[in-house]
Design a protein that fits this description.
The structure holds 2 protein chains of 2 kinds. Chain A contains 8 helices and 9 strands. Chain A is an alpha/beta fold. In chain A, the strands form 2 sheets. In chain A, strands 3, 4, 5, 6, 7, 8 and 9 form a 7-stranded mixed sheet that branches. A two-stranded antiparallel sheet of chain A has the order 1-2. In chain A, helix 1 packs antiparallel against helix 2 and helix 3 crosses helix 8. Chain A is elongated and about 100 Å long. Chain B is globular, with a radius of gyration of 22 Å. By secondary structure, chain B is an alpha+beta fold. Helices cover about 25% and strands about 40% of the residues of chain B. The relative contact order of chain B is 0.14. Chain B has 3 helices and 12 strands. The N and C termini of chain B lie far apart (about 70 Å). Classes of the chains: A alpha/beta, B alpha+beta. At the A-B interface, helix 4 of A face loops of B.
């Protein structure tokens, strides 16, 4: 495929050779004014098409730069009697680090994506980023509960629905030269086997409280959002996070692989390519 | 199978598929059970003392015993209208809200009711509580912000109108994440409030 430079050089040669003079029967005949104008018009059109095609080809070959925002995965320990759950922040911190590492591992085996981990973010952006990622989790939940995933979240944009978290992080797009952000969010209500055994004994003797038991399990979402608008472009997820001991890296690699199983890969989110 | 037969089957298949294909572009994603995008143009609570016009393009909880609407999902935006018994248990004592109840008292009662009724909210801040005219009555407009524990600390904004009519307390509220969604969909809520009569 021609590069932009190649197309420009070829175009000027084309104009010089084709529209200034034509070589007929061993001598140059100068083209008449109207013929020359038509010739220049046709050649210019050809040049424009060549330039656009080569620019698009170059853009398609450039990896898609994806900003990985701080993950928002919450971990809860279910109590022995199963009627309450306490958030375990230190465990969540370790799982979140493992989720980022697992995401990097996943994309390291696939070309076309340049991951930028959010350690590069300015600390002053922390509060807006946190609220925006919490909102993007709610947006992904809404889409997932509506039975929409993959690029279907974008297809619905052209109908009535608008799964977007808004443009609050748009300034990061220019600052980091990243058109899209990757958001990881989820939760896991975990009950260790030993606690379950004790819980069964305790619940046998204890009177039942009026409120419901805490449900085990959880979810993990991975969403690709356009930074300029906050539009959700792609959504993957899994609810297979129950019955998993928090062996962080193994856990993270398994759920990330599951959530990204249908990821299109390559520079698919190039503006105007897949999503006109 | 001959070509004529194949052609007939093909046409029959297209006739069967056509309504499905035609309907596909209008399908909504947010269609969990009990929510519908087919609802009447107006809503009146059981007492029939007031009526509001409903916005287009939202979905309505058909199983709720009061008005409950959303556009994308209840966690992204929600409009409700309730008709309540004006007797509240307030600070351990019974209190009846009447048209003479001051906006400050009504605000305090409804704020406590909102906090007790909404499980898992924290950092509740009253942004505004003012006396207004709503639905032809003297009433209260109150705006609060809070953090939702269910959404792991996402900040929400909640706006409500409350007034008393024919011995009933009416409550019309709009709840959405403070970031982006509250402003985006507030127009629909404003229209409902303005249409109230």
């Amino acid at each position: 495929m021609l590069g932009t430079h190649g197309a420009a050089e070829q175009s000027s040669a084309l104009l010089r050779g084709a529209c200034t003079a034509s070589y007929r029967n061993g001598s140059y005949d100068w083209l008449r004014g109207s013929e020359r104008a038509l010739c220049i018009f046709v050649c210019s059109a050809v040049i424009l098409v060549l330039t656009a095609v080569s620019a698009a080809a170059e853009e398609a070959q450039r990896p898609l730069r994806v900003l990985v925002l701080p993950p928002n995965f919450h971990f809860f320990n279910i109590s022995v009697n199963e009627y309450s759950a306490a958030e375990n922040e230190s465990e969540a911190t370790r799982i979140n680090a493992a989720l980022v590492s697992a995401t990097q591992t996943f994309f390291s085996t696939r070309s076309g994506t340049d991951l930028l981990v959010s350690a590069a973010l300015d600390p002053s952006a922390a509060v807006p980023v946190t609220q925006w990622t919490l909102l993007s989790d709610a947006v992904m939940k809404a889409a997932w509960n509506g039975g929409v995933a993959g690029t279907g979240v974008w297809e619905l944009r052209r109908r009535a629905l608008d799964y977007t978290a808004g443009p609050a992080l748009a300034p990061l797009m220019d600052k980091l030269s990243a058109p899209v952000a990757l958001v990881i969010s989820g939760e896991n209500y975990y009950e260790p086997t030993s606690a379950r055994a004790l819980g069964n004994v305790a619940s046998f003797f204890a009177p039942s409280p009026s409120h419901k038991r805490v449900a085990k399990g959880g979810y993990l979402f991975i969403g690709i959002f356009e930074l300029a608008t906050g539009q959700l472009l792609w959504l993957g997820g899994t609810t297979a996070v129950d019955k998993l001991a928090p062996d962080h890296l193994e856990f993270a690699e398994r759920v990330v692989r599951e959530a990204l199983r249908d990821y299109p890969g390559g520079n698919w989110a190039r503006p105007g390519a897949v999503f006109p | 199978m001959n070509r004529r037969m194949t052609g007939r089957l093909g046409r029959a298949a297209w006739l069967l598929m056509a309504p499905i294909l035609a309907a596909a572009p209008f399908a909504r994603a947010w269609e969990p059970r009990d929510w519908t995008d087919k609802y009447p143009l107006t809503y009146s609570p059981p007492g029939r003392a007031v009526s509001v016009e409903l916005p287009d393009g939202w979905t309505l909880n058909s199983k709720a015993d009061s008005l409950q609407m959303t556009r994308d999902s209840p966690i992204l935006q929600q409009i409700r209208m309730l008709e309540l018994d004006p007797r509240f248990v307030y600070n351990g004592s019974k209190m009846t809200v009447t048209p003479a109840t001051s906006p400050e008292q009504l605000s305090a009662v409804l704020l406590e009711d909102f906090i007790v009724g909404s499980r898992g909210i924290k950092d509740v801040t009253v942004v505004e509580a003012v006396e207004v005219s709503v639905c032809g009555q003297k009433g209260l407009r109150q705006v609060v912000t809070y953090l939702s524990s269910a959404q792991h600390g996402l900040s929400y904004r909640h706006e409500l109108y409350a007034w008393v009519k024919n011995g009933k307390l009416y409550y019309l509220d709009y709840d959405a994440p403070a970031l982006y969604f509250f402003d985006r969909d507030r127009g629909a809520f404003d229209k409902i409030v303005r249409s109230c009569n």
